[in-house]
Amino acid sequence: MGKGKRMPRAVRERQMLDAAVVTFARRGYRAASMDEIAEAAGVSKPLVYLYLHSKEELFSAVIRREAEALVAAVRAAVEPGAAADRQLWSGLKGFFAHTAEHPDGWAVLHQQARTQGEPFAREVAAMRAEIVEFVTGLIGEAAKEAGCDREPAAREVAGLAHALVGAAESLAEWANVRPGIGGVTAPAGRASGSGGGSVPAGRASGSGGGSVSVGRAPGGAVGPGGAADVGADADLYEVREAAAKETAMTLMNFVWVGLGRLMGGERWTPGA
Questions:
Q1: Architecture of domain 64-214+221-263 in CATH?
Q2: What pTM was estimated for this model as a whole?
């Protein structure tokens, strides 16, 4: 009898990263163990070390993948050629939809990586700088479209962009009610990183001391539930889309109305 078909390295590595995202998000970087990650991925611990060398390098790889996926989602959501406010609106929807769909990936970026020092914080800072630069361009373009008598100075535009991105990050944290999304619990066995692959059935311990199952990531093959899984995924997708739109609208109302007055030349002053 011939040997079974060997799994490609890229697929196996994606499984390890999927398992690592869930474990780091729910256990924390320091509490997570390579044993847990290997078990959740359905591989041996030596194989994890062979592929990703160390816990530090594995965590860095997770951060890079999740950061790249988030930036790509925002850029892909933006409507090319649309007015600046429409581009910002669609970009915000893309941001909130992605963070809702991948809460574990967002937890790694927003909670874990920032608190573990270098080089992890630097990876997240690079992602944030890319998004801020993108938003800065949109605000600058909006000022031109508005025909302002006095366009905001570059430093003022950059400050507005940083404030907007910070508000979006805070809102994403607020909107992603865990262990569900917007109050709706995800189907059992779903990992929520950005890999899109599948993780063999395993167990990753949760921060509460219990265990959290690690199963198929969104976008993976249909599991044992068949059509029921597909229906649950569709329902959850609709809920996340609606929540992302609502959250983006909240931020647009908070920011764009005031920004519109700023573009019209108004400035707030503290008075006497």
A1: Orthogonal Bundle (1.10)
A2: 0.72
